[in-house]
Input
Amino acid sequence: MTTQDIENRLRAVEDASAMLEISNLMAKYEYLAEELEWDRIVDEIYADEWMGELTHIGTIKNKEEMRTIYKAQGDVYGKPFIHMLNTPYIEVNGDTAKGVWYCLCAGTTPQQEPQAFWVMVKYLNDFVLQDGKWKMSHMRVHYYFATPYQDGWAKTPLMEGYDAGGQPKELRPNVHHWLPTVDKP
Output
């Protein structure tokens, strides 16, 4: 076995470890979102230099702006708001990475008479190794549907969303389709 073979194997092990850490970070993000732990998301998940592009909000320049948005929306989603994250596709490139996930959410509105709803999004996120830990540096959220349970996504594909000030607004379809630099699997 050559030195290059050993280096290649070590890189493969490091990349696999990074993929597991990034998958766990995304799972933690979903768990904290379910628990409405907005400050913990900003403090524990987001990198110091963070930005977001979210179909239901728009472009967010930094994590403190996102913290303000989270606090403004409060518990608008109600409980439960279960996030089922799946089909991770992660590409690691040294101290940076890109990842794609789908997330199906089942939730209830917080009104006196709660209503069930479905949400389906695709996450297209960038990550950076910061102080020895993986953090999310750029979040892109593409909504496929956000619909009342009783209607289904064929009848009512997009419900109302919220702007940067926490005010309701109509969701707009997002045609941003990002994949890592490698060919589609």
Residues 162-185 have pLDDT under 50 and may be disordered. The domain at 3-170 is CATH 3.10.450.50 (Nuclear Transport Factor 2; Chain: A,). The first strand starts at residue 46 and ends at 54.
